[in-house]
DNA sequence: GCTTAAACGTTGGCCACACTAGGGT
DNA sequence: CAACCCTAGTGTGGCCAACGTTTAA
């Protein structure tokens, strides 16, 4: 699909600089021009005429920032090149289960009023623009609410936002193209959730499904028709004729990057803030929402900076609020059955005491009946004696 | 049109406990 | 190395206070 980056250009200093201005970090790769462009140059070059505006572009890999993205990891909401995708998603079981889809090429004018008029055009979000964010993603029409959310995510990370828009639209339009060794770390469950449109956000799916594949003794989760999913996946793989290789190598850097969204939450705050502070150009992220200079990608990022960015991004993603998901049905059952006092969980003895006092003594005296379970599901604990 | 208060809606914290992971013995 | 014990951490739902927003006077 996309050519693997061959031009390492000497020592990898992470973000590749724009081929045009040579100053800003590139955000998109133009196939027609075989050029890496920053948002501003992309806007300028591809808004010049209609022909140019038709150039297909793809986001630059969010991990290495040096290669065209080939896959969109929905769980991480990250666009990744084949190499990074393989590295990241082969690192651990959780990462393997991330749902990824091929990156849709971007065409049309990403910037400027003309672009805004074109509802159906795939919008970009590299957003080195005055307001910091302009584009939106997808060949699909995006609702205004989604645009608003997209805007906030654009501030955080253009590429990410591109992905995050998909959250609300369930999936990107292009199909899935995994093959070869992909099953080793392909999240078929998430794929199922996505295709079923059961959940609008893959992060939810991740929350919902990522852990339970590991067999827990007590907690249970909603079962998934895995075999069926596998067949669907294989069909798609075949139809698309895609190949996907998964290098088994795992670099130390990738070890951290490949953490699942769930794992990101355990990163100590201090670590990330420390790293952020040490970095002169404030990395994109939550703080950048208030910095007034969104989408300014530091020309060069150290591995630590890069890692900090990824971690912070994931933490923010983790904090996004969507519909409540239940990861452990058994815990839900326990919670529902648990005695409460004013909505709070209460100690059983305490509740029994409370019940005895509040209900049994008074109501029993009035009605002559003894059993007063005020919560039907936990009647056992509320039986008056 | 502006101000104030009331009504309404949203958000996050609290609580107990079953359960798991991980370290120690 | 396996088995066991202990501790810390996680997740769960309903209620409510603290806000923020909207509406009416």
UniProtKB/TrEMBL annotation:
Organism of derivation: Cephalotus follicularis
Domain CCT: start-end pairs: 306-348
Every B box-type domain range: 13-60, 56-103
SMART domains: BBOX (SM00336)
PROSITE patterns documented for this protein: CCT, ZF_BBOX
Protein known as: Zf-B_box domain-containing protein/CCT domain-containing protein
Location (main, coarse): nucleus
A GO molecular-function annotation: DNA-binding transcription factor activity
CDD domains (UniProt xref): Bbox1_BBX-like
Annotated family: Belongs to the CONSTANS family.
Domain of life: Eukaryota
């Amino acid at each position: 699909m996309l050519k693997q980056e061959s031009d390492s250009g000497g020592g990898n200093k992470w973000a590749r600089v724009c081929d045009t201005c040579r100053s800003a970090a590139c955000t998109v790769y133009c196939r027609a021009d075989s050029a890496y462009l920053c948002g501003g140059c992309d806007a300028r070059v591809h808004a010049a005429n209609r022909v140019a505006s038709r150039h297909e572009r793809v986001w630059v890999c969010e991990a290495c920032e040096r290669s065209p993205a080939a896959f969109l990891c929905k769980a991480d909401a990250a666009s990744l090149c084949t190499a990074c995708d393989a590295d990241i998603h082969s690192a651990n079981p959780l990462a393997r289960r991330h749902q990824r889809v091929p990156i849709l090429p971007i065409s049309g004018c990403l910037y400027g009023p003309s672009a805004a008029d074109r509802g159906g055009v795939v919008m970009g979000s590299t957003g080195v623009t005055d307001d910091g964010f302009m584009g939106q993603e997808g060949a699909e029409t995006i609702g205004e609410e989604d645009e608003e959310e997209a805007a906030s995510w654009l501030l955080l990370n253009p590429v990410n936002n591109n992905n995050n828009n998909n959250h609300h639209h369930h999936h990107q339009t292009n199909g899935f193209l995994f093959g070869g060794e992909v099953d080793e770390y392909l999240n078929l469950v998430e794929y199922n959730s996505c295709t079923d449109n059961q959940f609008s956000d893959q992060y939810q799916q991740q929350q919902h499904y990522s852990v339970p594949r590991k067999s827990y003794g007590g907690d249970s989760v909603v079962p998934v028709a895995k075999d069926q999913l596998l067949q669907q996946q294989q069909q798609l793989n075949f139809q698309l004729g895609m190949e996907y290789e998964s290098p088994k190598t795992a670099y130390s850097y990738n070890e951290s990057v490949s953490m699942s969204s769930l794992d990101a939450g355990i990163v100590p705050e201090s670590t990330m803030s420390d790293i952020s502070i040490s970095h002169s150009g404030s990395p994109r992220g939550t703080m950048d929402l208030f910095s007034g200079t969104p989408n300014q990608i530091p020309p060069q990022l150290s591995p630590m900076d890069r890692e900090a960015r990824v971690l912070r991004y994931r933490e923010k993603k983790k904090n996004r609020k969507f519909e409540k998901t239940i990861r452990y049905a058994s815990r839900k059952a326990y919670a529902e059955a648990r005695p409460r006092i004013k909505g709070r969980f209460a100690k059983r003895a305490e509740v029994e005491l409370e019940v005895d006092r509040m209900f049994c003594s008074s109501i029993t005296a009035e009605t002559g009946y003894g059993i007063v379970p005020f919560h039907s599901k936990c009647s056992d604990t509320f039986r008056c004696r």
